[in-house]
Amino acid sequence: MDKLNPNITKQQSATDINASVWVFASAGSGKTKVLIDRILNLLLAKVPPYKILCLTYTKAASSEMKTRISDKLKKWVVMPQSELAEEIEAITANKTNVEQINWAKSLFAKVVDESDNLKIFTIHAFCQSLLKRFPIEAGVNPNFSVIDDLTATKLHQEACSKLLQKAYSDASISEALNQVSSSLNRDNFLELINIILANNFNFEQLREQFKTSDNYLSATHRFYDFDEKATIASLWQNFCQDCEKIKPFMLNLATTLKSHKNRTPVTAGEGIECFFGNPTLENLDNYKSSFLTDNRLKSNLTKCLDENLLEDLEREKIRILNFEDRLASLEIAINSRAMLILEQELNKIYTNELKQKNVLDYNDLIIKSIKFLSNSEVNPWVMYKLDGGIDHVLVDEAQDTSKLQWQIIKLLTQDFFV
To answer: For residue range 112-134, what is the model confidence (pLDDT) as tens digits?
Structure first.
């Protein structure tokens, strides 16, 4: 049998309860079966169901796993001993005995009696059960309910409307809105609002670190090596001052290029002449495109110009690209500060909406669980109250588990690696 199916050995290794295992395999290769076999192996080893936590990616996967485990244990009750022995040995990779067979036959009743303790949840369902069990310690209303993504999106839109109304009376919010929305259409802006609210935990950590949006802007200026008072206008002014210094040279270069018989150098010369006649930020793209393609000198230029002219154009290319890189860095700093201002106000409005309705969204479940489990004063007690602790954590579709969700898993398993 092993020779016919070389994956048997690997699957049995993955169900070894004495090893921490990461299973990487393509769709349909039997990952869910391996996960179920590992749970069965734990139950066969007399691990109490309440000490096993299995986190699935979807409700459907959670339901399917519970059903498949229940069906398997139900079959074991009436299965002939010889057949059951073979099945147990296929899962455990060890020889079985009468005691193990009798234990396997009793598992269905034990698991049914402790069905609430067989913890197979989605990560959100687990967080919900955790917060429901310890509402006071977690700082939530015991009677909270959870809203779906569609309802959360509607509340996002309501919060956005209230934010826009507040911008009429709050200059800092108005300025931040103008900064962020200047390059966005309506749909992009609403998408940005959803992204901001979905990442409020990250924004909260930034606020804790920098205290104010101005402190954050100063830090990003230092990171990008900008002067404390640098603005887009001042950056452009410095670029234009350099333009004035090289203007005579560049206009001579334009004249030389325009006298060329090939059309591409002529276009480049016209572009240089036009830009240096009226150097504005709005004209910069047209200037670039007159002699660059994808930030490289146009191929026709490299073919028909001598080495000296190409070196002149190459130096100008580097000057322009360096400016654009600095401009992009400064825009990141300024836009990030604006987003920090908007997020703080937006999150305040949205959180108030949730409190008034006594609801949490899926993101709240994760964030509040992280904060709760991160509290060193309550964590040991909570882990003890979780039915004496969790000894085994299994994660389905682990590659799709987000960074924040992994934080919860890390907090639950931190004692494993002490």
So the answer is: 766 556 789 999 999 999 999 99
Residues 72/65, Cβ–Cβ less than 8 Å: no
How far out from the chain centre does Cα 314 lie?
A: 39
Helix (H, G, I), strand (E, B) or coil at 105: helix
Spatial distance between the Cα atoms of 138 and 299, rounded to a whole number of angstroms: 64
The larger pLDDT score, comparing residue 195 to residue 417, is at 195
As a residue count, the chain comes to: 418
**Beta partners for 52?**
392
pLDDT in tens, 32-50: 888 898 999 999 999 888 8
Which DSSP letter does residue 353 get?
A: H
Q: Is 0.85 topped by the overall pTM? A: no
- Which residues, other chains included, contact 386 with Cβ-Cβ below 8 Å and sequence gap of 6+? none
User: How is residue 187 written in tokens?
Assistant: 């749909």
Burial class (CB in 10 A: 0-12, 13-18, 19+), 165: exposed
Q: Which residue, among 342, 295, 345, has the nearest Cα to 323 in the 3D structure?
A: 295
Which of left, alpha, beta for 196 (phi over 0: left; psi -120 to 50: alpha)? alpha
Non-local (6+) Cβ contacts of 267 within 8 A are 290, 291
